[in-house]
From TrEMBL:
Belongs to the Gfa family. Coiled coil: none annotated. This is GFA family protein. It comes from Zhongshania marina. It comes from the Bacteria. InterPro entries: CENP-V/GFA, Mss4-like_sf. SUPFAM superfamilies: Mss4-like (SSF51316). Residues 6-123 form the CENP-V/GFA domain. The keyword Secreted does not apply. Keywords: Lyase, Metal-binding, Zinc. PANTHER family: CENP-V_GFA DOMAIN-CONTAINING PROTEIN-RELATED, GFA DOMAIN-CONTAINING PROTEIN.
Length: 138
């Protein structure tokens, strides 16, 4: 593990976090569930081992069945509504942190696109990154 840390918070500052090391992956997720959760065409998510993250403050959570049938617990700030991270009940050892909540969102590099089967048709991807129809192998 490198000594790089990534810090982030919600817009109002009620919730803050620190993740040690580099994310295992950084993906743009175009699934319907992430479209709801982001209010946009896709969510950009950094995969961090839960053990490397320190969370501080309280978040609210709602639970949905994700597009792959897994149980997705989506955490957001109860005060300002910033989407913060999600965790799968089936895979609690990984946190999926919303890249937009990082203090420095440009400190992590996008590695690919997932759930392109539900990508919005007006969005043209020309970044040369992988485009997976569904979930990556984890
Ligand atoms: Zn907040
Ligand atoms: Zn998704």
């Amino acid at each position: 593990m490198s000594d790089i840390t990534h810090k982030g918070q919600c817009a109002c500052g009620d919730f803050t976090y620190t993740c040690a090391g580099e994310p295992a992956s950084v993906m743009a997720c175009h699934c319907r569930d992430c479209q709801y959760a982001s209010g946009s065409a896709f969510a950009t998510v950094a995969f961090f081992p839960a053990a490397s993250c320190e969370l501080s403050g309280s978040s609210k959570v709602y639970t949905v069945k994700g597009d792959a049938g897994m149980t997705v617990n989506r955490h957001f700030c109860g005060n300002c509504g910033t989407p913060l991270y999600s965790v799968l009940s089936e895979m609690p050892e990984m946190l999926f942190i919303k890249v937009g909540s990082l203090d420095q969102p440009d400190s992590v590099k996008l590695q690919g696109h997932m759930w392109c089967a539900s990508k919005l048709p007006w969005l043209k991807l020309d970044d040369g990154l992988m485009q997976l129809p569904g979930n990556p192998p984890l």
